[in-house]
Write a structure and sequence with these properties.
20 helices; heme binding; 54% helix; 2 domains; metal-binding
């Protein structure tokens, strides 16, 4: 077929000459856009691969397949601390940029893609970009996360930990029994157990009613499907919101998941009942939000968001620490020794006062990568003039999307020697200012995780109990490493972090 005939078919009713003109204009416009982005854009001086200068598809694809954090870190090694990863997006791996982007004067505004984490039409305390919208809600609930209130309510969390310890002992005994009878110890998924503790601690302490995850003696806790569904949202986190919504709607229609729906219904029912039965008072998280005048439906959404975030991140962090302690029994033994000595001196001590336990928790948070990817922000109207630690200067114009990822910071060999190794000792004997600065497991600034104190207390109480009760004696870590899908909330491949006991 002649070219004119093909082109004529592209625009029904148009003559071949008109179609040729339209196609020529389209190709010319695309070529001009590519040339502009590659060589004339205001960000042209920022180094990076040519494909990233031209299109965002590179970042979207690697985010989807779950390796964008490690890929971006490789680009930083090649191009330097400030790189262009999309036509209008910059990644920075130099910790000197943390303060101006995330904390100084409140930091830069969150990027529009945070709307992809809205739930049922409501912006959550995490996802909202409007400081005023967030302020009303965060002001209502921030007091429950204060260290003084957490210490007052620590018995509730300790009760959840005690149930988790009992379950771990039961499953460890089953693993040993299988080893004796068949020669093959039964693997125990500590990720599932840690998630069960996390959802119970969040619900018991904040909502005044336990979800009962630890009591579910199953291979997969009933809330896991709901949590995993929201984790999977992270692979599309950086997409424009209209594209994200279209994909979300399409996937729900074409690939419904019965197990995930049942899990979501379980969480919906739990949250709906506790919110509908709550008074507008200060005794619970949901009561504080209701007292502010927020609708019951939005309060349910805020509670579900907290269940998701608290269950996923703390579950990943705690199970990773258990796996690392089982792999390094000499660290576990040293931890047990410190806790035994503290118990003998004063059983009422604050576990966060123990230096080696603190080092274990810090190191666990550094390597677990519960949230490995960048936290995108938008450069304000005055622009961003940044001087890196090596003396290079970069100017980012207003409207540029810029972010820093914990993966690059936590695994920077110039800050953390042998960065992929679990070495609590690195936090003893005066860690460097760069180490203190660059470890950001809960984010940074006014928009960091609102529940960080609760999550930290859970970890201290749980890890102390695991050492005190000798739960990991004879435990062996399954696998050489924990493999992750590097989404906004990382997904453990296979959804298992396993130990065996012999």
């Amino acid at each position: 077929m002649a070219l004119s005939g093909i082109l004529g078919g592209l625009v029904p009713g148009a003559t071949p000459s008109v179609s040729v003109l339209i196609l020529t204009i389209a190709i010319g416009s695309l070529t001009s856009l590519i040339v502009y982005r590659a060589f004339f854009d205001p960000l042209r001086s920022i180094p990076g691969p040519l494909i990233c200068r031209i299109t965002s598809l590179w970042t979207y694809w690697h985010s989807y397949i779950g390796d964008d954090c490690s890929k971006i870190s490789q680009l930083h090694k090649r191009y330097g601390p400030v790189i262009r990863i999309a036509p209008h997006e910059i990644s920075i791996s130099d910790g000197a940029a943390l303060a101006p982007i995330y904390s100084d004067k409140g930091g830069f505004m969150k990027a529009p893609c945070y709307a992809n984490f809205d739930i049922e039409g409501h912006s959550t305390i995490f996802s909202t970009r409007d400081p005023g919208h967030r302020a009303i809600r965060s002001k209502a609930v921030v007091p429950v996360f204060s260290m003084s209130n957490l210490r007052s309510g620590s018995d509730t969390i300790e009760g959840c930990v005690a149930k988790m310890i009992a379950r771990m002992k039961e499953e460890a005994a089953e693993s040993r029994s299988a080893s004796k009878t068949s020669g093959q110890p039964k693997p125990v998924n500590v990720l599932n157990i840690a998630r069960s503790l996390a959802v119970d601690a969040v619900s018991s302490y904040l909502f005044g009613q336990t979800f009962g995850g630890v009591s579910e003696k199953t291979d997969k806790m009933s809330a896991n499907g709901y949590v995993d569904t929201l984790v999977a949202v992270g692979r599309f986190f950086f997409l424009p919101n209209f594209v994200f919504l279209a994909l979300e709607m399409t996937s729900q229609k074409l690939w419904p998941d019965k197990d995930e729906d049942e899990s979501a219904n379980k969480v919906d029912s739990f949250v709906g009942n506790l919110v509908q039965g709550s008074a507008k008072d200060d005794s619970t998280y949901q009561g504080r939000l209701l007292k502010t005048g927020i609708s019951r439906h939005e309060v349910e959404v805020q509670c579900k968001d907290l269940i998701f975030a608290g269950t996923d991140s703390t579950g990943t962090n705690l199970s990773t620490i258990c796996w690392q302690l089982a792999k390094r029994q000499e660290v576990y033994a040293k931890l047990q020794e410190e806790i035994a000595e503290a118990d003998a001196r004063d059983p009422s001590y604050n576990p966060q006062s123990l230096p080696y336990l603190d080092a274990v928790i810090r190191e666990g948070l550094r390597v677990s990568m519960a949230n490995p990817t960048r936290f995108p922000r938008i450069v304000p109207p005055q622009g961003f003039d940044f001087e890196s630690s090596n003396g290079q200067r970069f100017y980012l114009p207003a409207g540029t999307q810029v972010g820093m990822q914990p993966y690059s910071l936590h695994f920077d060999p110039d800050v953390f020697s042998d960065p992929f190794a679990f070495k609590p000792e690195r936090w003893l004997n005066d860690p460097t200012p760069e180490m203190q600065r660059d470890a950001i497991p809960f984010g940074l600034g006014s928009r960091q995780c609102i529940a960080r104190n609760l999550a930290t207390m859970e970890l201290f109480l749980a890890v102390r109990a695991i050492a005190r009760e000798k739960v990991l004696e004879g435990a062996r870590a399954v696998g050489e490493k924990i493999e992750l899908m590097e989404w906004f909330n990382s997904k453990v491949k296979g959804e298992k972090i396993e130990l065996t006991w012999q």
